[in-house]
Design goal:
- It is built from six helices and seven strands; from the N terminus they run E-H-E-H-E-H-E-E-H-H-E-H-E.
- Strands 1, 2, 3, 4, 5, 6 and 7 form a seven-stranded mixed beta sheet that branches.
Length: 193
């Protein structure tokens, strides 16, 4: 039963009751396929609501879905709304960053988790000495570009909120868990329902 008591904000946002795109589970190729299929079947006019519950996954798939949302908004001026349910961790927060703060919502007791990207890699040095520095530079370039991509996403997450980019950068290495009410107080979302 829906809580429509005076303490509930649900009645203020009736569109959020039936999201057009409902995503759950790991952010991966399968989720991206589900996203594109649901987007294709969604009504072509009016606000578009996307909901997600995820413990994380592939940040590039999250960025790809976010780009689809951004392009839809840019080309059609269509309103897009984000609804995080229960857990919006890691790549889920990356997807959330594609929505402006005034279009983000969380359900009660939802938690966000934002962290730095991680990498696990082994570098094998094998060959003439003059060629080994190329292998090391290539890996360093990969790391530096991944940091740039991460920081772009961090800037998008905090844009329009009360959270400074530097504060997010400081908290991210320790897996920053943010409860829905705290996310609201920090201005990371418009409301909690």
């Amino acid at each position: 039963m829906t809580d429509t008591s005076p303490q509930s904000n649900a009645r203020n946002y009736p569109l959020l009751a039936a999201p057009h795109i409902q995503l759950h589970g790991p952010v991966d190729d399968k989720m991206y396929d589900s996203f594109t299929a649901q987007l294709a079947n969604a009504p072509s006019d009016g606000p578009l609501v996307l909901s997600i519950t995820t413990l994380g996954g592939d940040p590039e798939m999250a960025r790809a879905m976010g780009d689809n949302i951004r392009l839809l908004r840019d080309y059609t001026d269509r309103e897009t709304l984000f609804l995080g349910k229960v857990a919006v961790y890691s790549a889920g927060a990356t997807l959330m960053s594609a929505f402006p703060v005034h279009s983000r919502f969380l359900t009660k007791h939802t938690r966000l988790m934002i962290h730095e990207r991680s990498m696990q890699s082994t570098i094998q040095l094998n060959g003439p000495l003059n060629t080994l520095s190329y292998t090391l530079r290539a890996k360093l370039n990969e790391i530096e570009d991944s940091i740039r991509i991460q920081d772009e996403g961090f800037r998008d997450i905090v844009a329009g909120s009360k959270v400074a980019f530097e504060d997010l950068k400081e908290r991210a290495p320790n897996n920053w868990y943010i409860e829905a009410e705290e996310a609201l107080a920090l201005g990371l979302v418009l409301d909690v329902i």
